[in-house]
Amino acid sequence: MIQVNNLTKYFDKFCALDNASLHVQKGSIYGLVGANGAGKSTIIRHIAGIYHSKSNEVLIDGEPIFENLKVKEKLGYIPDDIYFFPQASILDMMKFYKNIYPKFDMARFNKLKEVFESINPKRPIRQLSKGMQKQVGFWLLTCLHPEIIVLDEPVDGLDPVMRRQVWSLLMSDVAEYGITVLVSSHNLRELEDICDYVGIMNKGKVLLERSLSELQGNITKLQVVYEGEPKIPEGLEVLNRTISGRIHTLIVKGNPAIAQKLISTVSPVFADAIPLSLEEIFIYELGGEHYEVKEILLP
Ligand SMILES: Nc1ncnc2c1ncn2[C@@H]1O[C@H](COP(=O)(O)OP(=O)(O)OP(=O)(O)O)[C@@H](O)[C@H]1O
Fold it and tell me: How confident is the model at residue 65 (pLDDT cuts 50, 70, 90)?
């Protein structure tokens, strides 16, 4: 449904996207994660059709997005720095969207007043807090029923209850209308709960994209207590190792069942294999790309 093929973008001489490719399947929720400056917003602006792309570089349902109104109509986008008309209230913006989008869902707009109850729709949007402005973005966007929703740091600035509310709105639209969602976020804990697929970006490249279950089935945390000398069995690929008292924590390649089987061959006193959280996967995958957490304060 969304396809980015070998996209490169320079800002003057700086390479912000370096042959980046990305694939989002219809009806899925795809989480785009990466370090600050990795290129997430830049690739998202190409997907939203804001930045120029060549005819085969960014495709929505097989058609190029750039300067293609028919394709752009399918897509709703909330940028990191959301923009409204300077003097407009929510009601003004609603009327504006209603005029240009025939399928604007007025019943939904009224129903969502209950969800965004702390916001008076008559107030000028510029007087609202940053988090409230984000809420207005969701409120209006979901009334347009886009087939594809692209969100850049959508919950940044929202309180925990509102974050849940927004994720649940999105998930119910995926279930009910089969919409497709591409979302960039640094909140990996929350992404883990909602995403089917994850793409990890670093230094302008998409390093990997996998289903969340595949990603979590490929790397395991082993906690091991040995009787004597610690032993690593043949075939167990250790990515990271820390020791706290008698407990050895090993981050290993492979799924938990295989890791458990392999470690049992060296007869530890105790061994437990558990899947890694998305946050742990992110840190260990990027560790290989020189993105390890630098222990500056606690060497
Ligand atoms: N308009 C611009 N002019 C020059 N450089 C830019 C511009 N926009 C982005 N960049 C650079 O491109 C790189 C990628 O930026 P981008 O905003 O896509 O990163 P990001 O992954 O969204 O980061 P963050 O998580 O911090 O929001 C950064 O090094 C940034 O400084």
Answer: very high
Domain limits, the chain:
2-211, 217-287
Residue 39 Cβ contacting ligand 1 at under 6 Å: yes
Tokens of 106: 């007025």
Condensed to tens digits (0 to 9), the pLDDT of residues 268-277 reads 999 999 888 8
Which range, of 112-126, 156-170, 282-296, averages the lowest pLDDT? 282-296
Those residues with Cβ within 8 angstroms of residue 55's Cβ, 6 or more apart along the chain or in another chain:
64, 66
- Rounded to two decimals, the pTM is 0.87
Tokens 């097989």 locate to: 62
8 A C-beta contact, residue 124 and residue 90? no
Task: Supply the residue whose CA is at minimum distance from atom 1 of ligand 1.
Answer: 11
Q: Which residues pair with 3 in a beta bridge?
A: 23, 59
Could you give the angle at which helices 160-177 and 130-143 cross, rounded to 10 degrees? 10
Distance in Å, CA 6 to ligand 1 centroid: 18
* Residue-wise pLDDT tens digits, 83-108: 888 889 999 999 999 998 888 999 99
Q: CATH for 217-287?
A: 3.30.70
Q: How far is the CA of 42 from the centre of ligand 1 (A)?
A: 6
Q: Is 18 in the pocket of ligand 1 (CB under 6 A)?
A: no
Topology classification of domain 2-211: Rossmann fold (3.40.50)
By C-alpha distance, which of 78, 8, 7, 83 is closest to 48? 78
Candidate of 41, 45, 46, 206 to mutate for ligand 1, largest count of ligand atoms within 8 Å of Cβ: 41
Q: Is the CB of 37 under 6 A from ligand 1?
A: yes
pLDDT of residue 156: 84
